[in-house]
Amino acid sequence: MTSTPDNKRKNSEDDSAKSNKKQTATRQASLLSMFKPVATAEKPSSVSSEKTENTDTLTVARNPEDLFRKLDPELRSLLDLEINTLQYEWLKALKPELTKPYFLQLKRFLKKENEAKVTIYPAANQIYSWSNFTPPNKVKVVILGQDPYHNVNQAHGLSFSVLKGVNTPPSLVNIYEALRRDYPDFKKPNHGYLAKWAEQGVMMLNASLTVEAHKAGSHSKKGWEPFTDAVIKYLNEHKAHIVFLLWGAHAQKKGAGINKAKHLVLRSVHPSPLSAHRGFLDCHHFKQANDYLIKNGQQPIDWNCLADS
């Protein structure tokens, strides 16, 4: 049967209605998808994916404030920096330390220094940058330092590392040379910013986390040492197959209690120009660290990743 103009118009209208109905349903489905439950945003490195038996789920972000609800206002105020800048898993692990008398005394000391306009390095928001680069479950290698660099634009919360735009410190120059001897294709960078190592799981931790400008060791024995001891103790007891690089007598003393049955402990003289020639340059720690990680089923560190950064 030949369609009449009226039938054609009716069919066209029916097709148009179906199309509009389909588009409307698509838009509604799209809008509904926007209201599905999602994880709350959190500080970098604190939201992680966890596999259940059958599905992948995103861990709901935790509020660090909840860990300290019961603290009185004065103590809560003292720990504001830790609550807001210490990576969540580290904050949770180190919570018992943060309310001990020695740590609160340290925080009161730093508060007085700040009120007196004393310049302290690194900047407050970078003191715990090591924790955000390397959460506990990401740590593969630990490099222990002693004191943050105390000159302008150097320290930023990672031992031996300096911000870009300043000269590479002599100790780090020797570290680069030792790396070249382990890996002849190592490209020496024109800076000393080691964040790309940290992002791979190299935790660079100083014994003291702050220092007064131009006064080396000025915050030694103010309370940081037992706190950073607690960081090492946590990794020693709760993790396995971490490589600890202990360079110099101070680092070796600090790492004396590390369980060598669970972890690899490598010792050498300090990379300082005063001692590096006595064995550090040929210590081969970087190659040994990677060999150990590979042996224990972990991805090795790409030490040769700095030149292009």
Describe the fold and architecture.
The protein has 309 residues and is an alpha/beta fold. The protein is built from eleven helices and eight strands. A four-stranded parallel sheet has the order 5-4-7-8. α4 packs across α9 (224-238). The longest helix is centred in the N-terminal third of the chain and has 29 residues, at 5-33. It is globular, with a radius of gyration of 27 Å. The model is unreliable at 1-13 and 16-59 (pLDDT under 50).
Give keywords.
309 residues, alpha/beta, four-stranded parallel beta sheet, two-stranded antiparallel ribbon, 11 helices, 8 strands, 10% strand
Strand content: 5-15%
Order of SSEs: HEEHHHHEHEHHEEHEHEH
The span between the termini is: 74 Å
Structural class: alpha/beta
Low-confidence stretches: 1-13, 16-59
Count helical runs. Answer: 11
C-alpha-based Rg, rounded: 27 Å
The general outline is globular
Helix content: 25-40%
Q: Order of strands across the widest beta sheet?
A: 5-4-7-8
Largest sheet: 4 strands, parallel
Count of distinct strands = 8
Write down the overall mean pLDDT.
85
Question: What's the quick description here?
Answer:
The chain is an alpha/beta fold and 309 residues long.
How are the secondary structure elements laid out?
Blueprint: H1 5-33, E1 49-51, E2 56-58, H2 73-78, H3 80-85, H4 88-98, H5 101-115, E3 120-121, H6 129-133, E4 141-145, H7 170-182, H8 195-199, E5 202-206, E6 211-212, H9 224-238, E7 243-247, H10 249-254, E8 264-268, H11 285-295
